[in-house]
Known about the structure:
Elements: H1 6-29, H2 42-64, H3 75-84
Helix pairs in contact: 2-3
Amino acid sequence: PGLLSWKAMGFYTVAELFAGLLAGLLAWGMGGNLVPGENGNMGMMFLAELLGSFGLTFTVLNAGTSADYEGNSFFGLAIGGWLII
């Protein structure tokens, strides 16, 4: 707690939202060909993205803030494993 100031957190949040907007515009500019299937269910795609992002964030935050970081080389494996899924 207290490792990130409110100002830095605001800049980080704006940068994340801007990056998401750019990614969406890129996908739209490519003709929407990144959406699987002809009639993709947007609700299910949103849920999949939400769960995937939550899982990755949860894994990274737990690996990065663990008290057992010294001498444990499996944190990178956990994060990489989540990315493969």
